């Protein structure tokens, strides 16, 4: 499928903009660009933890006290008002508890995608609109364009190396109508963004990018889940159902995982084994050869469309991870669910992940993977 209608870039008229400022360089430069473009900008930092010291310290994460101070200093340099909004309870319910529940159910969630859906473009946007703001601005690398009929579309960033449209694929047309991404339509490298921040006098110019999951302080996801869910010893099985090892909680594994399996019995062919299936019902983890990971199709639930939902089936490309490559697919909506068939088998696909469909550079929408179809015998559902 190809795009045929002309499009124009983001709205030219001045807007009253609420800039979400994480304390990092991208959101600071985005806020500065929005202000320079003539918009009436107010900065806001989201306090997402009831105890900020429990989140990652130093410059590697987000949502810390340090980040709040960095955001405030950036707003002062830009010359815009600045506030801190407490969304900790909403974040805990919609992102952290959802993350734990998904792993407990044997699925692999994406908390950044959920945060965009539930916090930045739901809780934050709703509050912003109620206060009379026209739009929410973030430092994401993506582009919102306006078609001649006035409808909005989400497109990839001009620089594919920095594109973040995958984690924004949950936004609907209403949310896109109130979203600004000032970094998305410029072909600038991250070093150039940092240089721009330095020219603007922003102290975050040299601050390292955030990594991993912001609410897991030490980066130990398995340890975090064990603290929430406890330990529950279970069996690691091979494809024939034979026990080859034990684990302390099926939630500590993901489809396609190779390292950390602690399997005592080597494979007959001596080759590495990978996680093929996770079963919370009987607390087992099934492992097997890499070839058994080949996925030919999937079914996804809770589709969210970045504009008008597609009618019937069609040809698209799909992205399955935040920094993954596109793959050609045929996709169709059936009874409210999205069915996707891959032209060529793909690997590393797990229930709970998001599949995001693209038509050229345009984001069509996303859905949560519920089950996969494999060429092998082990189902992943």
UniProtKB/TrEMBL annotation:
Q: Which residues bind ATP?
A: 20-27, 46, 139
* UniProt site positions, description: Interaction with tRNA: 140, 353
The question of whether DNA-binding is a record keyword is answered with: no
Pfam families under this entry? Answer: tRNA_Me_trans, tRNA_Me_trans_C, tRNA_Me_trans_M
Uppermost EC category? transferase
What does the UniProt entry say about where the protein is found?
Answer: Cytoplasm
UniProt entry keywords in alphabetical sequence: ATP-binding, Cytoplasm, Disulfide bond, Methyltransferase, Nucleotide-binding, RNA-binding, Transferase, tRNA processing, tRNA-binding
Task: List the EC numbers from the record.
Answer: 2.8.1.13
Query: Ranges for the tRNA-specific 2-thiouridylase MnmA-like C-terminal domain?
Result: 296-369
Q: Which reaction does it catalyse?
A: S-sulfanyl-L-cysteinyl-[protein] + uridine(34) in tRNA + AH2 + ATP = 2-thiouridine(34) in tRNA + L-cysteinyl-[protein] + A + AMP + diphosphate + H(+)
Per UniProt, residues of the tRNA-specific 2-thiouridylase MnmA-like central domain are: 223-288
What CDD domains does UniProt report for this protein, alphabetically? MnmA_TRMU-like
Residue ranges for the region (Interaction with tRNA) are 162-164
Listed GO CC annotations: cytoplasm
Keyword Methyltransferase on entry: yes
Active-site residues annotated for this sequence: 115 (nucleophile), 214 (cysteine persulfide intermediate)
Family under the similarity heading? Belongs to the MnmA/TRMU family.
Function, as annotated: Catalyzes the 2-thiolation of uridine at the wobble position (U34) of tRNA, leading to the formation of s(2)U34.
NCBIfam families per UniProt: PRK00143.1, trmU
The name under which this protein is listed is tRNA-specific 2-thiouridylase MnmA
**Gene name on record?**
mnmA
């Amino acid at each position: 499928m190809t795009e045929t209608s002309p499009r124009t870039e983001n709205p030219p008229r001045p807007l009253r903009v609420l800039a979400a400022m994480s304390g990092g360089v991208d959101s600071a430069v985005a806020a500065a660009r929005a202000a320079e473009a003539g918009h009436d900008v107010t900065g806001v930092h989201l306090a997402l933890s009831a105890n900020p010291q429990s989140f990652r310290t130093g410059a590697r994460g987000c949502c810390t006290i340090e980040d709040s101070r960095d955001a405030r200093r950036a707003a002062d340099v830009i010359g815009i008002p600045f506030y801190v909004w407490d969304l900790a309870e909403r974040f805990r319910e919609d992102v952290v508890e959802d993350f734990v529940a998904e792993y407990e159910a044997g699925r692999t969630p994406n908390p950044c995608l959920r945060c965009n859906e539930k916090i930045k473009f739901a809780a934050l946007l709703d509050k912003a609109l109620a206060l009379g703001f026209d739009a929410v601005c973030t430092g994401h690398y993506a582009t919102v364009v306006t078609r001649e009929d006035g409808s909005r579309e989400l497109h990839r960033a001009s620089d594919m190396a920095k594109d973040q449209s995958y984690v924004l694929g949950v936004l609907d047309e209403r949310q896109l109508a109130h979203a600004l991404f000032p970094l998305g339509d410029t072909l600038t490298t991250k070093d150039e963004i940092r240089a721009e921040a330095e020219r603007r006098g922003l102290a975050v110019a040299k601050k390292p990018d955030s990594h991993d999951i912001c609410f897991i302080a030490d980066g130990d996801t398995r340890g975090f889940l064990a603290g929430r869910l406890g330990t529950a010893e279970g069996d690691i099985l091979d494809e024939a159902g034979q026990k080859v090892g034990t684990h302390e909680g099926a939630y500590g594994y993901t489809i396609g995982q190779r390292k950390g399996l602690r399997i005592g019995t080597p494979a007959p062919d001596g080759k590495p084994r990978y996680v093929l299936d996770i079963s919370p019902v009987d607390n087992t983890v099934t492992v097997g050869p890499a070839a058994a990971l080949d996925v030919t199709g999937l079914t996804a639930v809770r589709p969210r469309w970045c504009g008008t939902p597609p009618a019937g089936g069609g040809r698209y490309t799909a992205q399955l991870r935040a920094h993954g490559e596109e793959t050609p697919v045929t996709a169709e909506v059936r009874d409210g669910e999205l069915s996707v068939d891959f032209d060529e088998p793909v690997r590393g696909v797990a229930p709970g992940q998001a599949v995001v469909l693209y038509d050229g550079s345009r984001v069509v929408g996303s859905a949560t993977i519920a089950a996969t179809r494999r060429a092998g015998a082990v189902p992943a559902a």
